[in-house]
Amino acid sequence: MFTIDAELNISAVEAVPEQIEAGTMVFRSEAELAAIAERMSITKLAEVWNSFAGVVPFDDLKPVAKFETKQAAAKRIWVAVQRLAEPCEARPVAPEATAPALPAAPKQAAKKPAKKPAAKKPAPKPKKATAAAGVEIAKPGSKRAKALERISRKGGATLEQIMAATDSTRQSASNFVNEIGAAITVKKTKNAEGVLVYSRA
Questions:
Q1: What is the mean pLDDT of the chain?
Q2: Which of 5, 87, 134, 149 is at 20 to 30 A from 44, Cα to Cα?
Q3: Is-contact 173 162, C-beta < 8 A?
Q4: Distance, CA of 28 to chain centre
Q5: Which residues are 199's β-sheet partners?
Q6: What residues contact residue 55 under an 8 Å CB cut-off, 6+ apart?
Q7: Contact 128, 184 (CB under 8 A)
Q8: At a CB cut-off of 8 Å and minimum separation 6, what does 190 contact?
Q9: Torsion-angle region of 5 (φ positive above 0: left; ψ -120 to 50: alpha; else: beta)
Q10: Interatomic CA distance for residues 46 and 200, integer angstroms
Q11: Where do the domains of the chain lie, and which CATH numbers do they carry?
C-alpha cells in the first residue's frame, strides 16, 4: 500500500501505521487513488507528480505543468509508484539523502491573444493655407508667385493683368488662379467695366 503525506510525497508501506499523521492519505489500488484524486485539484495532482518525477528511481519521468483530467493523473501516478512496491522496506519517493527534491514545474503562462495591429488613421485632408502661408504655394520668382503677388495687391487683378505679370497665355493665367485658389481663398468680383477681378479674401 502507499501513503501521500501532507507534503505530497508518496511512500510504499507494508501496513498502515498505527498513528497516521494529519493530512496523510492511504491507497491500496488505482481505484482508491482515483477516489483521492477526485478530492484534489488538478494543480495539487501535478504537484504530487512533480514531487518525484526526475528523481531516482523515477529519473526517466518528466515534471508536468498540469494534467488534462484527474483520472489521467491518477492512472499515471499509480503506474509510476509500482516501482516502490518492494517488500520489507518503506522508502520515501524523494528522500533528501539520495537526491534533492525538484521544485514544482512552473505553470505555463497563459498565452495572451495577439494584439491586432492598430488601424492606420486616414491622412488628414490638407487644409487651405492661411494668408500668411499662402506664399508657400509658389516658389519665389516663379510665374505662379508673380500671379499670387498680383492677386494680393489692393483691388486684385483681372486675368489680363495676371497674363501680363506672368507673361503667360490666358489658359496658363487661369490655371495659376485655380492652383492658388486651391490653397487660399480667392474672391471673384466684377469691376465697373464688368470685367472679372481676382483678389485674396
A1: 78
A2: 87
A3: yes
A4: 49
A5: 187
A6: 93, 94, 98, 99, 101, 102
A7: yes
A8: 196, 197
A9: beta
A10: 81
A11: 2-84 (no CATH), 134-200 (1.10.10.10)
Q: Helix/strand/coil (H, E, C) string of 78-104?
A: HHHHHHHCCCCCCCECCCCCCCCCCCC
What are the pLDDT digits (tens) for 33-84? Answer: 999 999 989 998 999 898 888 887 888 889 998 899 999 999 999 998 888 8
Which cell goes with 131?
494668408
CA angle 74, 79, 80 (to 5 degrees): 100
On whether the pTM is more than 0.85, the answer is no
Distance of CA 134 to the CA centre of its chain: 45
The predicted-structure confidence for 111-137, as pLDDT tens digits, reads as follows 666 666 666 666 665 444 444 444 457
- Contact assessment for residue 62 and residue 111, using Cβ atoms and an 8 Å cutoff: no
- ∠ CA 182-184-188, nearest 5°, is 90
Between the alpha carbon of residue 123 and those of residues 120, 126, 127, 137, the distances in Å are 9, 9, 12, 20
Parallel, antiparallel, or unpaired: how do β-strands 196-200 and 186-190 relate? antiparallel
- Cell 493523473 sits at which residue? 73
CA distances from 66 to 9, 40, 43, 161 (A): 17, 13, 6, 88
